[in-house]
Design goal:
Layout lengths: L4 E5 L6 H12 L2 E4 H9 L3 H8 L1 H15 L5 E4 L8 H8 L2 E7 L2 H7 L14 H19 L2 E4 L4 H11 L1
Parallel strand pairs: 1-3, 1-4, 2-3, 4-5
Helix pairs in contact: 1-8, 2-4, 3-4, 4-5
Length: 167
């Protein structure tokens, strides 16, 4: 039987890319960061896609990528912060995967993203307020999408061990 995918979801700064890469190495799987996957296909950064084509265009690329990757096996996928806020993406990933929420308090996300200027949704003067609002909107969606929730405020290695023991 083919190995199911592991899809990591959670708010920006929760460690999806770092933990995903580490987890994939630890369990012998391929790692795909969904944003990098889209950037490679489009030959431009997520920020540039947002600037050139807008968020709806990016979300469509994200939906298509989720569909494509859900038909592969044995991957660890770091979904973008907004990916699993859309039911069609949740359904696609559930088709062949286990969705893991990397849960962190908004205060930790704010601390980790304090100097980050690469996230289009946060590139604004009211960054902290926007982050809190977005976090409060997204957390219930992440929670309803997740098969497993782990505390991602710990070290990346501990989070990986928690995920492995939960699977």
């Amino acid at each position: 039987m083919a190995k199911k995918n592991i899809i990591l979801c959670g708010f920006m700064g929760c460690g999806k890319s770092t933990i995903g890469s580490l987890l994939a190495k630890k369990i012998g799987s391929a790692f795909i960061d969904l944003d990098r996957y889209i950037e490679k296909q489009e030959k431009k950064s997520v920020s540039q896609i947002f600037a050139d084509n807008g968020e709806p265009y990016f979300r469509d690329l994200e939906r298509k990528a989720a569909q494509t990757l859900s038909h592969k096996n044995g991957l660890v996928i770091a979904a973008g912060g907004g990916t699993l806020t859309f039911p069609e993406n949740v359904d696609a990933f559930r088709h062949n995967g286990c969705i893991v929420l990397l849960n962190i308090p908004v205060e930790i996300a704010a601390q980790r993203l304090q100097y980050d200027t690469t996230r289009p949704l946060l590139n604004r003067p009211d960054k902290e307020e926007v982050m809190r609002d977005l976090y409060n909107q997204r957390l219930p969606l992440y929670q309803s999408a997740a098969d497993i929730t782990v505390d991602a405020s710990q070290s990346p290695m501990q989070v990986c061990l928690d995920i492995i023991s939960s699977l």
